[in-house]
Amino acid sequence: MRGPVFPAARPLLSRRQMRLLFALLLALFSWRARDRFQNPNLRITFFDVGQGDGALIQFPYGKNWLVDSGGGGFRWNVGSRILYPELARLGILTLDGAVLSHPDKDHAEGFTRLFEDVTIREFLYNASFSTHPKMSELFIDDKKGVTRFTGLNENQTLVINGVKAELFPLPGKSTNDRALLLRLSRSGCTVLFTGDIEKEGERRAVKALSGPVTLLKVAHHGSRTSSSPAFLASFRPRFAVISVGTNRFGHPHPRVLERFQTAGIRILRTDFHGYVRFTFTPEGMVFCESALGDCGTFNCLK
Fold first, then answer.
1. How far apart are CA 98 and CA 120, in angstroms?
2. CB-based burial, 51-70: b 16+ in 10 Å, e otherwise
């Protein structure tokens, strides 16, 4: 006895629809590859990582660095919950470099999970932290995610696809003041990453670096122990980004916000603006955007 005969299942998509889907995927891949590997712009994105720091540097023509990685705990980690999804969305599963300003939890903890998902070719840090407990944890945690750990004892200058990157490992007594500073320069535009430096670190930074900066990553989430009038007068930033979230420390401090306002410095905050992104063109043009929309356009050379 013959069993029931069922009609052949129809394919979910017709050949024409499959060809169209393939063409769309190919176009999307080509656009993303062109945007990454043929893009002459320098792009810096400050992610909204809550009370902590985490910023992506997309150098021209495809190289990428991450500066700090936010915080987290056993059940929730910025590295796996925020940074990895953002990097994956951009098609970045390998970082050419990662810079750790200092090993406080709200700057370093995200790396403990990020190492599991992203390859990092070189991890840069101030060599004075080599014996710090958090560094020991990072060294052991999952070494297969990092090709090379590089502890810096002295200043180092690199040129990455036309962008000058200067690293300054500061000496100091406190963890905050021994930050690894990063300054980027191109076409008259300058960006300074300051970690959590306070008064001592700021004095050393003023001596080590000179000249105004276009964009300042505000030290220590806007704490009243940082961003002294002398420091702001020395660097005269045009824009400043405060990476901050809900906290019990009173960051950013009203007095610090007043200093920036008095100096005529435009402030953007990740707890209010969400992500903040600056795009620097080879001609010195700067385009600012945030989760709230356009936040300005100007020319560094004027």
1. 7
2. bbbbbbbbbbeebbbbbbbb
Q: Which domains does the chain have, with CATH numbers?
A: 40-299 (3.60.15.10)
Among 2-11, 87-96, 252-261, name the one with the lowest average pLDDT. Answer: 2-11
Mean pLDDT to the nearest integer, 173-195: 97
Residue among 178, 166, 172 at smallest CA distance from 210: 166
- Higher pLDDT pick, 161 / 141: 161
CB 47 within 8 A of CB 269: no
Q: How many CA atoms lie within 13 A of 5 on its CB side?
A: 2
Q: What is the DSSP string of 75-123?
A: S-BHIIIIIHHHHHHTT--EESEEE-S---HHHHHHHHHHHHHSEES-E
Which among 24, 165, 145, 31 has a CA at the least distance from the CA of 90?
A: 31
pTM: 0.88
